[in-house]
Each structure stands twice: as C-alpha cells, then as structure tokens.
Amino acid sequence: MSLQGPQLSQAIEVIPIDLSQAAHVEGLKAMLSEYAMSTEGGASPLQDEALERLPRLLASRSHYAGWLAWTHSPDSGPDDRRVPAIEGPRGLRRADGAPGEPAPSARCIGLLNAFEGISTFKAKPLLNIHDIAVTAQCRGRGVGRALMAAAEAYAKERGCCKLTLEVLEGNTRAIGLYRSVGFDPYELDPAMGRALFFEKWID
User: Fold this and answer.
1) pLDDT at residue 202 above 80?
2) Interior/surface letters 168-203, b for 16+ CB within 10 angstroms, e for the rest
3) Rounded to two decimals, what is the model's pTM?
4) Contact assessment for residue 148 and residue 18, using Cβ atoms and an 8 Å cutoff
5) Taking Cα atoms as reference points, which of 111, 107, 88, 105 lies closest to residue 41?
6) Which among 5, 43, 46, 92 could disulfide-bond with 142, CB atoms 3.0 to 4.6 Å apart, if both were Cys?
7) More confident residue, 85 or 121
8) Cα-flanking dihedrals φ and ψ of residue 144, to 5°?
9) Which domain holds residue 132?
10) Which is more confidently placed, 112 or 74?
11) Mean pLDDT within 178-193
C-alpha cells in the first residue's frame, strides 16, 4: 500500500512485517524503542533482552500481524532510521527496481502490531491493535492513518467483525485519529457506562 501523506513530500509505503527479514526486525525494534521513550509510551527504555526476544516470540504466534511504514527521502539527515533494502516482490527496491541492494534513503517511520482474537458475542474473529507508533518528526502527516488502513483491510480479508484498541485518555492526538477513522469508546448499555481497561502482572 502506497499513498501520499497530506504533508509528507515522499510517498508512504506500508508493508506487512516479515520477521525473517533483518530490516523488518530492526524497524520493529527501533520503532518500539522510540515509542517506549515517548510520553505516550511511558518514557522508559525497553530492556535489551526483551527487544531481542520479541521478534522470535511474535513470529511463533500465528495470530500476530504487523505492518511497517517506510518513506524514501533523498535528503535524509544523520538522525534518520536507515535500513537495507528488503528482498521480494513486495519489498522496497532501488530506483532501478533491483532487489536486495542497500537502499540508504529508505526510512522506517511507523509501526502497527495487531493480534487476532474472537468476538464471542458475534462468533467471529476480531483484530486488536496492540501498538501503533509513528516517529516523532512524521506525526500528523498521514502515517498512522495509512497503518490503520492496512490493518482494516487485513481484518476485512480475515472476516473480522471489528477492530479494537486501547488508548490513554491523555493521548488526544491518537484519540482524534481513531475517532476520525470510525472508532468509538466501547459500551453495551449506556446505563452501565463505558469499558475500562485493567491489567494484572503475573511474572
């Protein structure tokens, strides 16, 4: 999936994550690390051991789906996230179309991780968006919207009845995006109020 962001001069290309590809693994880890260090992500670094273990764990789960957003910028600066080219017909290529060569101007700028679950009330699959992150300098330029569109297209292909996600109340930018693409807070009977998200650590 490719599109022009409303304020991004280079095309955004959203590609399904292939965890057998080193560039995808590096993009996943880099985006998660940046997200974790943001206010929205808790402003705390991820443990190196967890980052190294995560790609193998995700690859072992058949209900996992993920996407990375890339852009090509001929004027990339020293802080850009550079990755090698990705082999294969759906991967990033050189300008002449040859696969498997370094592509220093390709930058990973966004990530979406999702997991398929089940709606027991509908007896149909659903897709839960677990992480969505966009690198700081590219926020507000259509990257998150492109990632959400890719996830929704995948969910429709899988016969899912809905998309779900959690968001912090103070993350107003993300809430604005989610509402703009059709998400609403979860409730059954308004008299019972909206759903709350709880957690309990067990290790």
Assistant:
1) yes
2) eeeeeebeebbeeeebeeeeeeeeeeeeeeeeeeee
3) 0.82
4) no
5) 111
6) 5
7) 121
8) -60, -40
9) 2-182
10) 112
11) 95
